[in-house]
Amino acid sequence: MKSIKARPGQAGTCHPCCPATEPECPYGPAMRFILSLPVLVVVLSMVLEGPAAAQAADTSSTLESIPDKLKELGSTLEEKVRAAIDHIKRSDIPKKTRTWFLETYDKVKEKLKTTFS
């Protein structure tokens, strides 16, 4: 690790290897990202946990409703996917994409033919 001497009064000199944007700096962006991951995990676990135990309904009714919720999610997802596929089939995107690829292929083929002839 390269050691850089911090100059007095230099902006951003909170530690010997400033600036913090230097790739070898242990306090740089990568370290801040790594330190933020546990916080993100804790927040997500709190959000996904749902209501507190005192506020939660009966556990058995919650467990019984899971299959119904999964069926509802599956049917909703299926409807959205089918609608998206139908929209793509009705649009002219596939035709335009195919035409563009064919034109580009023909241009490249012609360029190679004239270059290597």
Describe what you observe in this structure.
65% of the residues lie in helices and 0% in strands. The relative contact order is 0.04. It has helices spanning 29-49, 59-90, 93-115.
Note the main attributes of this structure.
flat, 117 residues, single chain
Beta-strand portion reads under 5%
Low-pLDDT stretches are 8-12
Q: Helix proportion of residues, in percent?
A: 55-70%
Question: How many β-strand stretches?
Answer: 0
Helix count, DSSP H or I runs of 4 or more residues: 3
**By helix and strand content, what is the structural category?**
mainly alpha
Query: Biggest sheet, open or closed, and with what strands and sense?
Result: none
Question: Alpha-carbon distance between the termini?
Answer: 55 Å
Please state the CA-atom Rg, rounded to the nearest Å. 29 Å
Shape: flat
Mean pLDDT: 75
* SSE order: HHH
What's this model, at a glance?
The protein is mainly α. It has helices at 29-49, 59-90, 93-115. Mean pLDDT is 75; it is low at 8-12.
Task: Describe the secondary-structure layout.
Blueprint: H1 29-49, H2 59-90, H3 93-115
